[in-house]
Amino acid sequence: SRSHFGSSSSPGRLQGRQPSAAQAHLLSEMIDYEEDWLFPLLFKLEGSVYVRSAIFALPSAIATLALLLCERWYPDYRKESGMVSLDSSILWTATTAVLLFMVQFRTRQGLSRFWEGTGLLHQMKGEWFDTVSNCVTFTIGSVKKDPSKKEDVERFRHTIVRLMSLCHGSALEEISGMSGSLETIDVCGLNSATLKHLKDCVDHHKFNKVEVLLHLVQSLITTSHEEGIIAIPPPILSRVYQTISRGYVNLLNTKKITDTKFPFPYVQLIIALLLLHTCLTPIVVSAVIDHLVWAPLLAFVPVFGAHALNFIAIELEDPFGEDDNDLPLAHFQAEMNNCLLMLLHPNTDIIAGVSDKCIRDFEELKSTVCVCTDDEALAATVPVARRRVSVQLFDPNFKLIGSSKSNLEQVVASMEDPHLDLSKDCESLDDMPLNLPQEAEPKTPASFEEGKEQELNERPSTTGGGRCFPEPKLMHNKELETVLVKSMEEFNHSLQCWTRTMEEQVRELSNRFSFCALNLPTENGTSPLRVDSRTVHSDARGIAGWAPAAPARGTGTGPPPNLKAGARIEPRSS
Question: What is the pTM assigned to this prediction?
C-alpha cells in the first residue's frame, strides 16, 4: 500500500505533487556503473551533464569559427571593431582562474551535502529500526510469563511495524517533496480510528505527519508497557525513546539540506563568470590559433568543462529530488520494509544456541580455525588432518533440508573423524555436489535377480550426490605411504582390542561353567568331581583364579549327553 495522507507542512520544490511513472522510477533506482571499461561510461547519457554543457559550449565553438572566417575575409576587422585589446590572454586567464575557484568551491560543498544526506538517511533508518526491534524483543518475556497475552503481543507488533513503516516513508516523501510515491506495509491494516486521526491531522489541521506518527508510536509503547505487554524495567525502556528522538533529529538535519540552498550571491557570481568566460574564450582562441578545426575544438573544451562542473555541483546540492543522480529513496524504503517484516516472522522469538557436537574447548577449537592467510603459516598453524571445511551457510546452493540428508549434517558427520583430510578434496562447499537426487517411487521387481540389481542401483554412491565430497583424487607416494601406515596401525589396534575382548569373554564363560560343575550334587553329597585328572573339592579355596585345563581327547568339558534332568553323577575312583 502507499501512504495516502496529505503532504507535510515543510516547504519543498516538489511539495504536494503526485509522481509520474518516470519520476517514480527515478526515485527507485540510482545509477549503477562499473569502471572496468571506460568507453561504455564515456557514452552513457543517463545522469550525464554532457547535453546541458554542450548547449553552452557549442555556441562558443561556432563563434570561434566565425571569427576565423571573418579574419580571413576582412583582415582588419579586429582593429576596426576594437578587439585588439581583447586578444591578450591576461583577462581571459584572470576570469578563468576566478571562475574555476568558485566552481570548485561549489562542487566541494555540494559533494559534502550529498554524503551528509545519505549518511543521515542511513542513521535515521537505523535508529527507528532499532526502536521497533527493541520493542519486539521486550515483548518476549511477557508471553513466557502469561501465555494469554500472546494475542495482545501480536497486535502490538503488527501495529508498531505498520506505524514505523508509514513514518519512515512519510519522512522520505517529506524531504524529497514527492507525496504518495513510496510503498509502506499495509496501512489499511490499521483501525479506522487511527486512519481517521491521521487524515484529520494532516488534511484539516496541517500538522506534520511524521511528528503525528512518532507521537502515536510513543503513545503505543507507553500504553503497552503499562498493560504489561512490554515486560522490561522503565530505565531500559527509556532507550527506546532515545532512539526515536535521535532518528527524528537526523530527519531534521536532512531537511536542513533541502531547505537551505547554496547562497544566492555565489550563484550569481558564478553565472556571470560563466557567461563572460563563454564570450571571451572564442576571441582569445581565434587570436592564438589560426586553424578552422583546432580553434573551435579548443574553444569548446574549456567552456564545456566549466559548465559541466557547475551542473554537477547543482546535482549534488540537493540529493533528494527526482534527478538521475539523486539518492534512491524507494530503495531505502524497501530496505526498511524488509527489516520490519523480519520482526513479524513466526520464528523471530527463537533463542539461538549451539548443538551437542560443538567444540567447547578453546584450544581444540583454535586448532581447527585458520587465523592467517599465508599458505606456509596455515600449514604450520592448523594441521591438514584437523582443518575443518568452511561451511557457507548463506550460499544459495547450500541446503539445510534435503531429500536424504542435509549438507550441514553431512559436513558435521564427516568432521567427527579427526583423521579425515577434507582440505585436499574440497576447500569450500562450492566444490561439493549440493544437488541431492530426488527419491524415486519404489517399483516392484519382476524377479529376484532384477530386484537385486535394482537394490544395488538405488544404493547411495560414496562419491555422488549422497555425500558432500567429490571423488577421491590420486595421491603421491609419500601421501599413500602415510595413509597406509596409519590404516595398518588402526587395524592392528582394532585387532588387539577384539582379541582382548574375546579372551575376557572366554575366561568369564569358563569360570561360570566351572562354578556350575562344582555345585552339582553327588552320592555322598560332598564328594568332589574329578575334572581332567585333577580333583577339585567343594571345600577348597574357591574358584577365583582357577582355570580348567584342556580336556583329554574323547572327553568333553560338560556333563554326559545322556544325562537326564535330576540324575546324579557317580564320582570317579582315584
Answer: 0.62
